[in-house]
Design brief:
Helix 7 links the parallel strand 7 and strand 8. The chain has an 8-stranded mixed sheet, sandwiched between helices. The radius of gyration is 25 Å and the shape is elongated. It is α/β, with parallel strands linked by helices. Helix 12 packs antiparallel against helix 13. It has 14 helices and 8 strands.
Amino acid sequence: MSNGRAQWTVSVIGGGRVGTALGAILAGAGHRVVCASGSSPASRRLIDERLPGAQISTPLEAARAAELVLIAVPDDSLHTLVEELKPLPWHGKLVVHTSGRYAVQDLAPLAEAGAGTAAIHPVMTFTGQRDDLDRIAGTPFGLTAPSALTATIRALIADFGGTPFSLPEDRSLYHAAVTHAANHLVALVSASLDMLRSTGVDDPAELLGPLTRAALDNTLRRGVDALTGPIARGDSRVVAGHLDALARHSAEDHHAYLAMARHTVYRAAAAGRLTGSAVATLQNILNDSIASHGQQAATAQTPARHGRDQVVLDLVPRPNQPLDDAPSAASEHRNSTAGR
């Protein structure tokens, strides 16, 4: 293993957006990228553009050729790949994967064969464009590694220009959080762009840009206290109008708005932003829209914990529970904190 050396020989297994971007950064930092594997035309194009000195190889050939094996395949392919690579001689090699969901234990067969193993996850979105490389500088990297390798992996992350932070072996909730924030944001905003185009707006990105950037910045600074809009104000008639318009526009967008509206009511109520009557009225509006347009919605019963007291909010009433008798989340919050 090249622990302490200034330069590694590197192979990238998974020549897609992430692997080629990280490989290019390593090459720029003085390491020698000798091989890359990628079977799709898009991967081969990225390898040619970003890793011009690398030989395009199979995963087995790439793993044989280098001291540092960087695995950047889709998460669901990782375990199959590890089984494929297991028969190789691994003593003296370092294997690092970039999965957000999985960690070191998922490389156990290679560790048992003698490899040093670690998991690093760049908390960044990669599109395959040139600005991928520019964004890596300063990017946080989630790090899971045996203590004996921590210094080595931190030095590797420094070569990427990243900032390491420690993650536990179980990354499920962590990965759900970053995926929910980044990927679902793309789906949400792209749907809004399409809606605006349908209304005749020529440049919807120019219209939404300042609004969404301000909303994101405010949320990162203030959390749920940054919430504005009709649900936070209890403007139920406005919400009803939105749902009717969306039902005419697109069943999928109507369903997505319903899901987010339910969750927004839950967040606003948990923060004490809505009165009990406002919660009940909004519940009625959402349930009526579900019934009118044939959508199915699950009962939301998850307790909210945001540094405040627990609040349980049922957004679709159970049988024998009239909606008018739905609990007031805001009043429960006030009552539970009274006298403290």
